[in-house]
Amino acid sequence: xxxNELLNLLNNIKxxxxxxxxxxxxxxxxxxxxxxxxxxxxxxxxxxxxxxxxQEIVDKKLEQFENKKGFNILLxxxxxxxxxxxxxxxxxxxxxxxxxxxxxxxQASDRIYRIGQxxxxxxxxxxxxxxxxxTFDSGLNKLITNxxxxxxxxxxxxxxxxxxxxxx
Length: 168
What we know:
With about 170 residues, the chain is an alpha/beta fold.
């Protein structure tokens, strides 16, 4: 399952004593994940999303995330990640839910590529698959990959995915 894969990934990151950003789109999913991860790892996991973008709150959460020694997890909305955050304390990014606009997803990943990043950076996309059928996750992944390959090698931003393409 996707949750088992996530925990395997997080345990590997924990073993390296590194930090991770997990991008989750839906607020309900962010809250469920926060509760589950806090219970599993026994420390506070913060969320930065559109609901709490007051600069001083965001700054405080980032400071706590960066100052904690070793392994730490921060949950973010890919939309909140557009507000000029730099989080070089983390060098792992997990996209738990794909954003249908590849540019938003890239912008989210770019949070950890900023000046000052000294570690190798790892970006993961957890995609739910099933035998014999194409899942929504794998279909969306194909669509995003195709869009990105169209804009690779050019200065044109990756085109957004249209509703009609998702329906298809």
